[in-house]
Design a protein that fits this description.
Distance between the termini: 21 Å
Number of helices: 11
Oligomer: single chain
Bound molecules: zinc ion
Helix content: 25-40%
Strand order of the largest sheet: 5-8-9-10-11-12-13-14
Shape: globular
Strand content: 15-25%
Largest sheet: 8 strands, parallel
Radius of gyration: 20 Å
CATH superfamily of the largest domain: Metal-dependent hydrolases
CATH class of the largest domain: Alpha Beta
Number of domains: 2
CATH topology of the largest domain: TIM Barrel
Structural class: alpha/beta
Length: 386
């Protein structure tokens, strides 16, 4: 297959796909009008559910799995980390056991697990929609159990190192040896505590600006400490709800313009994303209300603690890139990179429009604000716009 298309930086490329890889990527000679845009597939490192399917509950059928992952393809996503929020130990056992069987058989666009919890800060300022009573201190025994269950499919753990710093350092050090990456999140880690976790190997902050105290000292707060930590990446949720546009712009610009860019974009999507309906849904055992503005929150009327708190988002990856571009005033190619090749590189995924790499890419319509024409994974068309 041969495609002539424009890269997001404006270059006209001749792209030759042979089987599952890019065989040749070269500059096209001459100018052509009205070409589609071509860009690497989007990589989302935090997907709790999608298309009406909640990944934090047992998936009922192959059809449900296919539907959720197909909806992700339809929103430009060729790779995602299936994310489980804080659960009971037996909850992880059941969910991970079931999911890994599915992944080994038919991974679709999922390349592994992100466990957000249970090693988080249970304080109401940090816990977000997670259940405090299921949180615990980091423990090698649990890491070993998860690795035993899912092996190399375990890619990322979000933890709060201040809950037990020595235990966190031990778990991070050991996990890194086994190929697991660590982000800090739902955490109040600052100063020395943060520096120690980073020195041990933590490389990012999960959804910076969220699961953080509403009222905090003007300088001594997690935002400034995370931004000031050299090299620490951070993911932001570009739905305009999790982080208001002015704050998103400030954070994204600070991260993007660091010595080496450390901005990551993620949706933190849950079952309500691409599900086309308002009303009640779930995030594991948590009941969630999708509002008229598309936000996913703990219902005001429920007996669950923390009504009104955000519980994931209904943002889709494709929409997220353009919202990020607009809110932060980024170049589209930079926003796209923060949602594709940069997260891919964390996990050693070969990704990008480069000869020899897997042909995972999106074609976009040539308008100023493009829509998705098609998604390809390993050289195969997995989504085409109707
Ligand atoms: Zn979270």
């Amino acid at each position: 297959m041969k495609i002539t298309a424009r890269s997001l930086s404006g270059e006209i490329l001749d792209v030759q796909v042979d089987g599952s890889v890019f065989k040749k990527v070269s500059k096209h000679k001459g100018d052509v009008l009205d070409l589609p845009w071509i860009a690497p597939g989007l990589i989302d490192i935090q997907i709790n559910g999608f298309g009406g399917i909640d990944f934090n509950r047992p998936i009922e059928s192959d059809a449900a799995w296919e539907h959720a992952t197909q909806q992700l393809y339809a929103h430009g996503c060729t790779g995602f980390l299936l994310t489980l929020i804080t659960n009971r130990e037996e909850g992880y056992r059941e969910l991970l056991g079931d999911l890994v069987t599915r992944l080994r058989r038919d991974p679709r666009n999922c390349f592994g697990f992100h466990l957000e919890g249970p090693w988080l800060n249970p304080d109401p300022s940090f816990r977000g929609a997670h259940r405090s009573e299921w949180m615990q201190k980091p423990a090698l025994s649990l890491l070993k159990e998860w690795r035993g269950l899912v092996g190399d499919w375990l890619k990322l753990i979000t933890l709060a190192p201040e809950v037990d710093l020595d235990a966190a350092v031990t778990v991070i050090t050991e996990g890194k040896k086994q190929g697991v990456e660590f982000f800090i999140g739902h955490s109040g880690a600052m100063g020395e505590t943060l520096a120690r976790a980073v020195k041990a190997g933590a490389i990012g902050w999960t959804h910076l600006g969220n699961a953080a105290p509403a009222l905090a000292p003007k300088f001594d707060n997690v935002l400034f400490h995370a931004l000031a930590q050299p090299g620490l990446m951070a993911s932001l949720i570009p739905d305009g709800v999790h982080v208001p546009p002015h704050a998103f712009r400030a954070l994204a610009q600070a991260l993007e313009q660091a010595a080496s860019s450390r901005l990551l974009l993620t949706t933190d999507a849950m079952a309500g994303a691409a599900a086309g309906r308002k009303g009640r849904t779930t995030l594991g055992e948590v009941e969630v209300e999708i509002g008229a503005d598309g936000s996913a929150r703990l219902p005001e009327s429920s007996s669950q603690p923390g009504p009104g708190r955000l519980a994931g988002s209904t943002l889709t990856p494709f929409a997220g890139v353009f919202l990020a571009e607009k809110m932060a005033g980024l170049y589209l190619e930079d926003a796209w990179e923060a949602f594709s090749t940069r997260p891919a590189s964390i996990f050693g995924l070969k990704h990008g429009l480069v000869e020899g790499q897997p042909a995972d890419f999106c074609l976009l319509s040539p308008e100023k604000t493009p829509y998705l024409l098609a998604t390809y994974q390993r050289g195969k068309c997995v989504y085409e716009a109707p």
